[in-house]
Every structure is written in structure tokens, then in C-alpha cells.
Design brief:
With 302 residues, the protein is mainly beta. It has helices spanning 6-30, 296-299, and strands spanning 42-43, 53-57, 82-83, 91-96, 99-104, 110-114, 118-119, 121-133, 143-151, 163-170, 177-180, 183-192, 197-200, 206-209, 215-216, 230-237, 240-245, 248-260, 263-266, 269-276, 279-290. It has one domain: Exo-inulinase, domain 1 (Jelly Rolls, Sandwich), CATH 2.60.120.
Length: 302
């Protein structure tokens, strides 16, 4: 065996180190089987059950049959179904298009709520409409929603929702903004007099949306045709939020706040609610990660 010189040993060590470093880097880049946490994402739906979530359901419609729930003489139910009771199987885990998903039947207005609160994050999920529809929205658009910064009691608004900001999930209206309960926000928007509504319009006047004027439509409709999966994202840091539909920004919200004992206080964190609202809908790939700021390219108008 030829004796190695000091220079040869150093050269061999350097080459070996570079080779190992390149091998490790390639392994990390090409890995596709690791948990979401490795890339900073946390899965909010484990694909098997609803661990990490709880439910609340309001009074069902008279057309639904719920054993043991009292009705009045006209057949109307007198009380809500309540917390973590699901006699009509409104919420279930299923396999849809070969992947695990959460199915909401829509038969009862209800919420699926994270047990944890979140602040300063990027939320990403996919949804797809089903085919079933129920009263009182049997002849209306299919409807659901993502309610974030949710605080307070279940049923505080409309007998079911918690105080929150809503990113609308509704046929033709995905990304619309709604103030729920005593929440107020500021949005650059214009008034569409012909259709009697407000539209997000970057660079226009900043308007306040509150309980008196709660709804601001998105700037553009980016929803896929019914029956196809859509990706919804919410970026939120401090009092700012951005709604993104299938990779396209269509609403920007600032200065989120709410009334407490007559005083406006910042509302920048809370639980996340997913709505059951009269239509069958599927949710999957629900992920969240911490962020320090909203990317400038999303916040700034094009």
C-alpha cells in the first residue's frame, strides 16, 4: 500500500466531507414522506378522526328528526343540539377521491372548532362541494365558511357562530369577508350601487366593516367549478389578514378589532371554525404554520 502524505490525507478528508454534505442535502430535498412539521406545517386534521376539534350545533330545522329534542306545537325545536353531540352525523371522516377528508352534511347549522387558539399564521386547506342541500338553504347557493380569530361562546351570533372574522366559502363568493358579532375591520373597497354591495378594490378608499355593514365581496372570483377541489389560504399577522383562493389574492383586511364593554380592542388571535351551513362539503389537507409577517407580494396590490 502506498503511504499517504499529509497533503493527501487533507485532500481525502475534504473530498469525503463534501461528498457526505452533498448526500445529506439531496436526501432532505428529495424527501416526500416526512411529517408536515418538518417543513414548518402542522396538520390540524389527522386523517382518521376529529381529535383536536369539537362541535357545536344549533336548533335543527323542523324537517330533521332528532330523538329526545323538544318541539313546540308548530314542530319547531326549542333548544340547540349543543356541544359535542351529533345525532344526525353532521360531521364525519370519510375517504373522498382516495384521500381522507372531513364530510359536513350541512343538515344542521353547526361549527367544527379547533380546541387550540392560533395567532400569526398561514392557514391552508382544500374544500370541495358535495351534492346534498338542506333547509333553510335548499334552494340557495351552497354555503360554508372559515371563521378565524374565534373567541367567546358558541352560538353568540345567529345561534351558532362564535365572534370572529369570516373568510367566506360559498359558491361564487369564496374569499368574501364577513364581520361576525361585534367585530370590525378596515378594507379598501368601493361601492357597487347597481348591485347594492361593496367590493374589495386595492388603492381605493378605506371603509370599515362592522355589524352595521358586515360584508365585503372579494375583488375577483377564483373558485373552481363545483365538484372540483379548491385551495383556500389565510395569512394573518397582527391586525392584518389576506384571503387567497387557488393561489390568487382576492381580499385584504386590516385593523381587526372587537367591542368589549363598549371599547374597541384588537382581535388578532383565536380558534378556527369550519361551518356546516345547509350544504354538503368536504374539507381535507388542513395545515397551519407560524409566520412573522405577511409576504409583501400578497399584501401589496399588483
Amino acid at each position: 500500500m502506498k503511504q499517504l502524505t499529509v497533503k493527501s490525507l487533507i485532500a481525502l478528508f475534504v473530498c469525503t466531507t463534501i461528498t457526505l454534505s452533498c448526500t445529506n442535502t439531496s436526501s432532505k430535498v428529495n424527501s416526500t414522506s416526512g411529517p408536515a412539521e418538518e417543513s414548518g406545517w402542522t396538520e390540524l386534521f389527522n386523517g382518521e378522526n376529529l381529535d383536536g376539534w369539537y362541535t357545536y350545533q344549533m336548533r335543527p330545522e323542523p324537517t330533521s328528526e332528532v330523538a329526545g329534542l323538544d318541539r313546540d306545537e308548530q314542530g319547531n325545536y326549542l333548544e340547540p343540539i349543543g356541544l359535542n353531540k351529533d345525532p344526525l352525523n353532521v360531521f364525519s371522516t370519510v375517504t373522498e377521491d382516495k384521500d381522507p377528508a372531513i364530510r359536513m352534511s350541512g343538515e344542521v347549522f353547526a361549527i367544527l372548532v379547533t380546541e387550540k387558539e392560533f395567532e400569526n399564521y398561514h392557514l391552508k386547506l382544500q374544500f370541495k362541494w358535495g351534492t346534498e342541500k338542506y333547509p333553510p338553504r335548499k334552494t340557495e347557493k351552497r354555503d360554508s365558511g372559515i371563521l378565524y380569530h374565534s373567541i367567546g361562546e358558541e352560538g353568540a351570533w345567529g345561534g351558532v357562530w362564535m365572534r370572529s372574522l369570516e373568510c367566506q366559502v360559498q359558491e361564487g363568493d369564496c374569499g368574501d369577508y364577513i364581520s361576525v358579532d361585534t367585530v370590525s375591520v378596515d378594507i379598501q373597497a368601493i361601492r357597487d350601487e347597481e348591485n347594492n354591495l361593496h367590493l374589495h378594490a386595492p388603492g381605493s378608499e378605506t371603509l370599515t366593516f362592522s355589524v352595521e355593514r358586515s360584508y365585503c365581496h372579494k375583488s375577483t372570483d377564483y373558485e373552481n367549478p363545483s365538484g372540483e377541489w379548491n385551495t383556500m389560504e389565510i395569512y394573518t399577522v397582527g391586525g392584518k389578514s389576506v384571503h387567497v383562493v387557488n393561489g390568487q389574492v382576492n381580499n385584504r383586511i386590516s385593523n381587526s378589532r372587537h367591542l368589549v364593554d363598549g371599547k374597541e380592542l384588537p382581535l388578532t388571535k383565536g380558534k378556527i371554525q369550519l361551518q356546516s351551513e345547509g350544504a354538503e362539503v368536504f374539507y381535507r389537507s388542513i395545515q397551519i404554520r407560524d409566520i412573522d409577517e405577511i409576504p409583501s407580494e400578497l399584501w401589496s396590490a399588483e
